[in-house]
């Protein structure tokens, strides 16, 4: 009888040990330094399951969205990922192969962590060297991430020798708490759908245009989209939500030819509303109603320069369409060349956050063309939590000579033929710190001997003193050959899209220069832009599209 009692007790003890649960706490470090107030990683594990989470997630205080990982060890090591998007929304996916895909090399090297002898396993992930230190002394498996879940209990994860996740405590617990433990998930989707929704939940998307046509036609205006200049300009009012001051803002444009075969100037812009009169007034009432700029060349240029009472547009992005991408992809077949089906232009415009966030704004897109098919574009803003390096509390539009209303009465900017060039006066109400001029410039026209193909120095003067001088020039245009299916081809084997140009290439963005102007005192100041514009040749002429926005703090 005594023997039977001891046997039953031994069996019960064995079951208890087999079912023993553990809570392991981990901390992250980089180059030996930990981050203060970091939410610790937690791993709960027993013979039936492993849960990878954080302390804040277990207390329902983690910021949304957050992920939790589960290994169902009773069902062939099924691996679940669960994202909690809000108190009422979650999404899960199941991967039955992930834990078998990781190829690990086991070594004989050992070390002791928290009193447990650990062995080392090695692998490589995306060219990163990974070391996993695991122990088999606890009789359970688990790890602080996907790697090494079936090795044993991973107590330290090391990436490239300097980024670590290290266990700081191992505790025996009676069981894994019910609100943490593996459970049945109501909404389980495939891995691609899961990853896509998780990725998109981490930032804010503000859609503007979807597959919208920009072509030369009779003007038509819908309830939501305004069309100007015979359809070559489209504008829409959108609401940008209130976001954290250090967020990063990106503009993304997708462009396809819908019949126009040529490289065209394009611009994504926003209407500035800091003064009584704005550019939208001229678009609606006629460009001749806007203030004119004149520098003595005999022409008047409407809506290009800031005056007392009027602000030109903010140019968010200058882009150039390639030669016929998508629509003309079947016109020329070349061995070892596959034409792209569209162009994606994406640019950080975080410096404009202060004039966008928590406001209704007008955003427009212009592509200069005279084609009935024209182009199709999709445009959106995306706003991401982060720490932008281009924040500015004040954004002052100064000039924009890109004639977005080309087909609506706004002439080409040929005024650099005069020594005065472009000159604008502005006034600061207060002293300004860390003033920058966000300057975009591209040279055009004149065919082979024009400013498009001849390098020209740009000189920027502040209060009659030279502040910055450079020669804008792009020599990398050949990199974008696969965006240009109907670019002209020459006898020497070059394509027109290969040729170097004055700061632009077919199928690219022209990035801004951020010109440091220092600290400026309150009062009036003057900026002048000088470019030695080339002389006309017959019916052809040169011109320059320049835009300038003042960025500063006060």
From TrEMBL:
Q: Which SUPFAM superfamilies match?
A: PHM/PNGase F (SSF49742)
Q: Gene3D superfamilies attached here? A: 2.60.120.230, Peptide-N-glycosidase F, N-terminal domain
* Keywords, ordered alphabetically: Disulfide bond, Signal
Q: Which InterPro entries match?
A: Cu2_ascorb_mOase-like_C, PHM/PNGase_F_dom_sf, PngaseF_C, PngaseF_N, PngaseF_N_sf
Which residues, by range, are in coiled-coil regions? Answer: none
All copies of the Peptide-N-glycosidase F N-terminal domain together span: 205-383
**Residues spanning the signal sequence:** 1-19
Q: Which Pfam families match?
A: N-glycanase_C, N-glycanase_N, PNGase_F-II_N
- Superkingdom of this entry's organism? Bacteria
Name it: PNGase F N-terminal domain-containing protein
């Amino acid at each position: 009888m005594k023997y039977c009692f001891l046997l039953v007790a031994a069996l019960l003890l064995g079951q208890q040990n087999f079912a023993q649960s553990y809570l392991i706490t981990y901390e992250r470090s980089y180059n030996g330094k930990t981050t203060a107030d970091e939410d610790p990683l937690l791993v709960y594990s027993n013979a039936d399951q492993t849960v990878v989470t954080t302390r804040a997630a277990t207390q329902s205080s983690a910021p949304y969205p957050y992920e939790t990982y589960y290994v169902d060890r009773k069902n062939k090591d099924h691996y679940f990922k669960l994202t909690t998007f809000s108190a009422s929304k979650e999404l899960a996916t199941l991967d039955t192969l992930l834990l078998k895909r990781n190829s690990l090399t086991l070594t004989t090297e050992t070390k002791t962590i928290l009193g447990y002898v650990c062995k080392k396993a090695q692998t490589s992930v995306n060219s990163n060297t990974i070391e996993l230190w695991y122990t088999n002394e606890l009789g359970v498996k688990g790890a602080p991430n996907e790697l090494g879940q079936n090795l044993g209990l991973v107590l330290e994860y090391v990436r490239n020798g300097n980024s670590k996740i290290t266990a700081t405590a191992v505790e025996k617990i009676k069981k894994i708490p019910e609100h943490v433990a593996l459970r049945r998930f109501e909404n389980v989707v495939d891995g691609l759908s899961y990853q896509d929704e998780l990725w998109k939940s981490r930032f804010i998307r503000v859609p503007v245009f979807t597959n919208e046509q920009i072509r030369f036609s009779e003007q038509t205006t819908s309830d939501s989209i305004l069309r100007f200049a015979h359809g070559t300009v489209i504008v829409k009012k959108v609401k940008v939500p209130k976001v954290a001051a250090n967020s990063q803002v990106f503009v993304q444009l997708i462009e396809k030819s819908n019949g126009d075969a040529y490289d065209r100037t394009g611009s994504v812009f926003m209407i500035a509303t800091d003064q009584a009169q704005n550019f939208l007034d001229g678009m609606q009432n006629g460009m001749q109603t806007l203030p004119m700029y004149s520098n003595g060349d005999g022409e008047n240029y409407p809506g290009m320069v800031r005056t007392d009472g009027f602000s030109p547009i903010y140019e968010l992005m200058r882009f150039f369409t390639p030669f016929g991408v998508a629509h003309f992809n079947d016109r020329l077949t070349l061995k070892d060349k596959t034409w792209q089906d569209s162009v994606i232009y994406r640019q950080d415009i975080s410096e404009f956050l202060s004039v966008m966030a928590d406001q209704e704004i007008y955003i427009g897109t212009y592509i200069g063309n005279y084609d009935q098919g024209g182009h199709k574009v999709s445009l959106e803003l995306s706003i991401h939590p982060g720490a932008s390096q281009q924040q500015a509390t004040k954004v002052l539009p100064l000039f924009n000579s890109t004639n977005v209303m080309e087909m609506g009465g706004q002439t080409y900017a040929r005024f650099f033929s005069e020594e005065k060039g472009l000159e604008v006066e502005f006034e600061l109400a207060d002293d300004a710190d860390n003033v920058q001029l966000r300057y975009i410039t591209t040279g055009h026209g004149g065919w082979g001997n024009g400013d498009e193909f001849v390098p020209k120095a740009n000189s920027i003067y502040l209060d009659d003193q030279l502040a910055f001088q450079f020669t804008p020039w792009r020599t990398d245009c050949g990199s974008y050959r696969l965006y240009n299916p109907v670019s002209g081809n020459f006898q020497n084997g070059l394509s027109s899209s290969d040729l170097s140009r004055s700061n632009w290439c077919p199928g690219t963005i022209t990035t801004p220069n951020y010109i440091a102007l220092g600290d400026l005192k309150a009062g009036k100041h003057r900026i002048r832009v000088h470019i030695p514009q080339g002389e006309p040749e017959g019916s052809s002429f040169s011109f320059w599209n320049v835009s300038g926005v003042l960025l500063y703090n006060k």
